[in-house]
Structure formats: structure tokens, C-alpha cells
Amino acid sequence: xxxxxxxxTGAAPAATARAERVLETTQLVKSxxxxxxxNKVDFHAGENEIVGLIGPNGAGKTTLFNAITGVYPPTSxxxxxxxxxxxxxxxxxxxxxxxxxxxxxxxxxNEMTALENVMVGQHCRSHTSMLRxxxxxxxxxxxxxxxxxxxxxxxxxxxxxxxxxELAKNLPYGSQRRxxxxxxxxxxxxxxxxxxxxxxxxxxxxxxxxGLIRRIREESMTIILIEHDMRVVxxxxxxxxxxxxxxxxxxxxxxxxxxxPKVIEAYLGKGAG
Amino acid sequence: xTGDPQNNETDGQSTxxxxxxxxxxxIASALVGNGSTxxxxxxxxxxxxIAVILPFLVGSNRWITLMTVVVIYIVLASGxxxxxxxxxxxxxxxxxxxxxxxxxxxxxxNNVLKVKFGVDIDAYWWLTWINFVxxxxxxxxxxxxxxYPTLRVRGxxxxxxxxxxxxxxxxxxxxxxxxxxGPSGISGIPKPAFLGFELTTQKxxxxxxxxxxxxxxxxxxxxxxxRIGRAWTAIREDxxxxxxxxxxxxxxxxxxxxxxxxxxxxxxxxxxHYLNYIxxxxxxxxxxxxxxxxxxxGGMGNIAGPVLGAIVWMGLQEWLRDFPFVQAHxxxxxxxxxxxxxLLMVFRPTGLLGSLxxxxxxxxxxxxxxxxxxxxxxxxxx
Amino acid sequence: MSELGQQLVNGLMIGCLxxxxxxxxxxxxxxxxxxxxxFGELFMFGAFITIMxxxxxxxxxxxxxxxxxxxxxxxxxxxxxxxxxxxVIIERLAYRPLRNAPRLAALISAIGVSILLQNVAQxxxxxxxxxxxxxxxxxxxxxxxxxxxxxxxxxxxxxxFVVVVTVTAMLLLNLYVRRTRMGRAMRASAQDKSTxxxxxVNVNKVIALTFLIGSAMGALAGGLxxxxxxxxxxLMGFNPGLKAFIAAVLGGIGNIPGAFLGGxxxxxxxxxGSAYLPMGSQYRDAIAFVILILILSFRPSGLLGxxxxxxx
Lengths: 273, 382, 312
Prior knowledge:
The complex is a heterotrimer. Chain A folds into two domains: 1-98 and 189-273, P-loop containing nucleotide triphosphate hydrolases (Rossmann fold); 109-188, no CATH class.
């Protein structure tokens, strides 16, 4: 698997120039009572970048995701997204601004069909009022049709053609992961957070997923990727950030990070003796 | 599978009897055939025909009164279904909204017009019709007020909080004698009239109720089959994910309360003008439980469920009432209700209509709809 | 000021009764996160069975049936035993099958049990009030409650008895939960059921025991309540049951000392409120609900509880 990403710029930079940063956290801290889960992390992502976020279990990766996406407010520190200060913002507002996510433990709407799941993603992009909905005005119908078509398109995009009418709970695991991605894409994000999208996938599915990620990036999206599957991370990322015990311990192109002794130590523990 | 708790199976080990993943259950299939749109439409037409023709066939008023009561409960159950069935918020104080609508119209006509202004309330016949909407809006506002403190509270606490609010409203109605005349209630609410033509017969009142019910069901159906219905269902399924997908869950929860409350309030207005008298005893906590039972019995989360629940339960009650044993021992109905609830939950929590579900999209009627319906139906029943 | 004193005494006593029921709610909720609506009805059956055991004969299902006519103390112990078993059976039939079901289903089942029990009691005992016989130890020959007077405040012997029994029961329960093996198992299950199971705890047994103890406490409260108010009736349990749950929330759900504190506090606030607020006595029942709304809005973990876990 080639270590170099296939972006046009060739060798990936260790950090993105300030001006191009789409998303940036400054000295972000998140603590729960006495436990500091994220400790003064400076994290950023640039336009059209794929950033891998790795670290041993409990390093604070998902906590970082959650703090940025508004699931809980940060204890201290800044989060800036496209010029907005989004620290402590409601998740729905963060999504409306353009950040979407998938979940580590798949959180689909089980009793809704695949198509309906994806259509929920489009919710914040249309604003038909209740009265117009009751009246079924031509404008309302048009908007709904547009949403439906777009979402059908997304279902095909992620490779779930033919399964639009199935209940989410009845889909096989790999399809569910892809459905979650389709749903997140439906929110028309600028930045897409993927939390362990390859978890539980077999090698075939994983390759398909990597292809999907590449295609998504071509839509000029920024992708931030938490993954334990090193093949996926190293193969897809332009830049990798490593967390351990809530702190950033390394950052840079995949090759550099992979051979960083601090990173190796974090994963394997201090060497014997 | 995915260890979905709603399937009562974790890691492949079934932990309970029955199970949520039932095949196309016999009741639903008996009612709607193979589930295609066409057979659902035929069923609806048949039901409607029965509803319209039956009053002319039966002799006594007793049946017409029963049908009116059923019609009221159909709307109440459907309104509560929005909150409990679609949005997943266990509201145990729903009867409060019903009470607000009823008291609103009673107070306007009695206290305000008759007593305060001393006008002839018969001249204000048109106000009755306006009150349907205004009473509903009053209840909707109450829904928002009651819903607000429950936003950040988890399911069981939410239930108790809403129960508390319902009780507070009832206690207010009972004790704020200046406004509500307390336990004696308010009488003298005029019958609905139109340009001098008063609706005095049981039949005419029934048809008014039926019309309101049909209008309500039609409206609810339209609201639910849209992005609003999707938002509500998403909140029920996974609130955190719904919020993450851009749904402002607080706003939609309040909308759910308000919408459900609206229909209860409107029906409360009807109730007031139907009986011409209201008192706090019509709005006890047991009513909330009863309405909830109707929703649960019929099947939550679809449009037909509450309708069926109301028809079946009220029909059962009426049939039981004919037995002298039951007349002598009214508590048997309570025992039946309690048993039904427990047995339902343990063996068939999805209710009579089980896996029937509403397609949450705004779609114009079309031929290819039938195919999509069939696929969704068969998948849902797997 | 004597009015205040009297209200405090009355409030404290009713608070003890709330506390006894609240403990059941809090223990059950702590482990299986279910509001056992039926505790109010178990409380009611406690009262009825106590009466049954004390009177020479009672009307059951309309027919007069001879009864042992035992002393109050024996009667209440029997009531506790019987209701404890009832509680365990209810758990087994109506709640255990729903342990992995969505929360809504278990709650609705609990409501169903509550409705069922209310009506069964009505079928057995009739819908009217059944008088609670005087307890010779606490009643004068003339039929009045034995009491002593402190200043202007009258305190009956029975009220003292209620407080003493409640405090004793609380201390015993606390000891049990903190010092015994089973108590440890209960606390472990309340923290994390699946891990406790992995550690060898028989979670089903623990839950059954929780219901056993909670129901017994509820029955104890019922017998005492009947003694205080000299009557029992089928619908008597609903209000105290609800208020006891509110007391449990007030103190911090899952926290036994919290339930005790919450019960006492609620009883006192209710008594004071009904005496001193305008129209207080009519709105007495609303006080508890207002407290609930306030507590859940401003401090959902309750007075003694730890922070409620995040929804995510």
C-alpha cells in the first residue's frame, strides 16, 4: 500500500498553513470531574485534507470529536470552524454550519428505512413550514422531491443501491456503516468526522471503504478519520495526529508518524528494561 | 444481528417471550391484506362507510353516544401518539390538554360572555367554531410550557414530570373556584350552532365529531409524512444522533408536545359543547392512562394504531357493560385494563397492528407507490 | 409558633412514611432503572393485610370471612411478609421479561400492574374505606390516641412509634447494604449490572431481593399509615406512592439515605406549605409536583446523589 497520499501536492506537509485551516482547536481541554480526557490539544484540519487521528484506546480521540461537534462543551480552549467560534454550540447548529459525523458504535435510526435515515441528514437543509407541509404546496412537494432524489443519489454513492427501502436495523453490518456515512453526507458538510468507519469490516469491505473515502475527498470535503486499522489510516491520510492520554504526542505525514518513537512507545508501552 | 435492544435479543440470545420481530401479524394482514396501498385504501373506505351509515341503522341513542365517545378517543389517542408513538416522549399528563380546551371554551362562554358581559351567548354561535382552533392553540401553548422543563430530563423522569403537570392542572381546575367553579364544574355551554341551526340531536353531534376526527387524522397524517415526521421519529430512535444530524431536538420535542396538545385541546372544546357541562372529574389521571392504553393497544408509531385501539377498547368496554356481573363490579374493567397493559407489553409490545409503519415521506399518489409500499411492508415485517 | 411545631411533628411523621416507600423506589430504580409504579399499591395492600390480621372478621369479595384477630405488631409483620412475596412475583411476571425492552414498555407494564392491583383490591375489599382497628398499646380506654404534650404541640405515642420504626428500619437497611455480601452485590448491580454478573453476582436474585425488601418497606409504611389515619381504601396508595417517588428523586435516586432525607423533607415541606401558603391545604398535593419540577430542573441528581450520567 503506497504510503504517499495521492493528493496533487505530492509529499504531505506536517501542518497546514494557518490561512487554509478550516477547523482549528486551540489548547482544547475536556475534563470529566477529575479525569482530564483531552489535555490542551491543538488540532487543525485544512481544506480538502484527510487527517487521521490515532492513539491507543482511551487516548481521547472520540472525546475530541464530541467536544468539537458539540456533544459536550469543552472545559476550556477554543474551537474555530470557518471563522465561527463553535465551542459549546449545540450539535445541530454545528452540523448546520457544516460539520457532520459518524459514530463509533453506529447510531442509525433503526426503525426507519435506509432512505429515510439519509433524508434525516437533509433535514437542516430544507425549511418547509408546517402549514405548507399540511397543505402540500407545490413548493413543498418540490423541495421534498429534491431531498428524496439527492438522498437516493447518496445511497447509490455509498453502494447501497436497491436497499433504500430496507429498515436500517435489517441491514448487514458493513452496509450500516456505509449508510451512516451517506446520512452524514446528506447534511452537506464541509468537514466530515468518521469515527472508526472500518471497525468490524473484513478486508474487502475495508478496501471499498478506502475507495469511498477517497471519492468523498474528491468532492472537496475535509475528512477527519479516527481509526485503529493502520492500513486505512496510513493509506488514506495526508497527515496524521497522534493522541495519548489526552495529549497530542505527534503530528505529521503518515510515514513520519509511523516511525516516531514516541508513537511506538504509546502503543506498545515502554520497552523492557 | 446488531444487538438491537428493541428486538429483545442480545448476542443472539432471546431473553423474552414473543419478541418484537414478529412476522406479518395475522390481525394486520387480515385488515390490510398484502399491505399494498390499494388494500389500505379499500379498508379505509369501508371503515368510513360504516362510520357514516351505522348511526342511521341503529335505533337507540346509546350506540350513537358510544360512537361519539369512540370518535373523541380516536382523536385523543392519535394526538398522544404523536408525542409517545412518533417522538418517543412518555407523556402521562395528556388529559391536561383536553381539559384546557374544554375549560377554555366553557370559561369564554360562561364566565366571560354570560356573566361578565351579560350577553346572549346564543348570538355568539360563531365563536364555538373559532374556539376549536383557539382552544387547540391554548392547549398547544400549554404543551410548550409543560414540555420545556422536560427537555433535558430522561425518559422515566419525563413521564413523572408530565404526570405532575397533568395533576397540577386538575388540582387547579378543582380549586380555582373563581375561574372554574371548582368541583361543581361549568354548565350552560351552548350546543354548536350555525346561522341559527342548532346541533341538538345525538346524530348531528356525532357527525360533527366524526368530521373533526377525520380532519384531525388527515392533518396528522400529512404532518407525520414529512420532514417533521422524520425528525420526530429520529428523535425517538436516537436523540443524540438526531441532534448530530442537524435536528434541533429541543425545538422538535416542543413542537411534538404542542401538536399533540392541539388536537386534545380542540377535542376538549368539542367535548364541552357536546355535553354542555364540564367538571374536573372528567379529567382525572386515569384518563391519561386510558388514552395511553389506547395508543399502546393499537400500536404506536403509525396512524391506524390509535384508531384501532380506540375502537377495540371502547367496543370492549361497551360489550362488557352489558354483563350484569360487570355492572355490579365496575372494578373488573380496571382489572381488564391493567391485565391488557401488562400482557401487551410482555407478549406484544408493538400492539395489535404490530409492525405496520408509516412511510415518512411526502408523496403524491401514484401507481409506482404501490410497489414501494409492498417492499417496505415486507421488509418491515421481516 | 405552636402551630409550627405541630406542623413539623405531623410533617416529620408523614415524611417517615414517604421515606419508607421511597427507599423501595430508590433501590429498584438504582438497579433496573424502572419506576415501580406499583409500590403505592403494595403500600395499600400492606395496610389492608394488617387490618385483615387484626380484625375478628372481614368482608372479602362481599362475603364475611373470620380472621385471626392478632396483635398489631404481628399483623404488620405478616403483612410485610405477604406483600414482600407479592413484590417478588410482580417483578418476575411483569418486569423481568421486559428487562431488555425499551424503557417505555417497562413503564407501561408498571402502570398496568398499578391499575390492576388497585382494582383487585377494590374487588376484594370493596371500594369503601375499611376502618383500621385501634391498637390497644397506643389508644386510651376512651378510644383517643395516647399522646403527650410538649408546650402546645401534641405528639401521639403512635407518631413516635412511626419515627422510631422508620429510623430503625433505615439503619438496619443501611447496615445490610453496606456490610453484608448481598448488600455489596446489590450495590455492585446498581453500578453496573453486566460487570456484576461477570463477577459472579446472581443479578436476578439481587433484583428479586431488592423487590422483596422494597415491598416489605412499603407494606410497613402502609400498616403504619393505616394506624395513623385509621382507615384503608383501595385508592389510598396512589398519591403516597407518587410522592414517595418524588421524595426519592429529591434525595437522589439510587441513594438510600437520600430517600430517607427526601421523604422527611417532602413531608415537612408539604405540612408547612399546606399550613402557611395561601390556599395551601387545597393545593397540598401540588406541592410535591412543584418540588419535583424544581429539582429536576435545577439539580436532577438530587440532594445527595452523584452527577447523573451524560446522555451521550
